[in-house]
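Tutorial handout. Part one gives the primary structure; part two gives the three-dimensional structure as tokens.
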Amino acid sequence: IVALTVNPEAVATKKEIEEKKPTPLPEKKRDAPVSEKEARRPIYFGAGLLLDTATLASLAVGAEILAGYNPHHAAFELSGTWLAAQDARLNPASTQGASEFALGAGARGCWEIFDAAFDVGPCGGAELAGIFASGFGATQATETSSAALFRALLGARAKLRFSRFALRLAAEAAIPFTRPSFVIDNAGTVQHVSPATLRATFGAEIHF
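Part two.
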């Protein structure tokens, strides 16, 4: 004869089993990843070094400042340029010539091919530039002349973004619609504006 007995302490109710289960930890809310496009700050200001081959009589160094708006792919900029003064002479041995510098203001649009942190693309625009020259070595040595140039701008730009900052490298050709000359009376031509000039800029931007 086998006798079976029940130990009431050994039988756990369903409720007790559920109570003994470990309480799951609450899941941490994960922030949705922020894409590069969503993080972009479209308004920017920048400045850079400018090299210009032929606006003045020889290679000139200057600066460019700009303000722009760059949502996605397209960028629109307003720029100002300055080329440092240099001497232009009738010929290398001459004592007559002119000291000249240039200022410009322009607008351009660029298309970014990849719309990414590193991007390249073509640019086009227009610029109104002024060349200011003061003669020396002639009878009227203090006379100052100026010439206005309206130019088309065609080129390309590369940009590398670091969140709020960016580095930029650009190259473009400036093609004037008119080609004025600077002349010393009874002596000769100091400069005849080139049919095209190549220029390059390297600089930085801050984005808002």
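Part three, for discussion. The CA atoms of residues 137 and 194 lie 24 Å apart. Helices lie at 14-20, 36-39.
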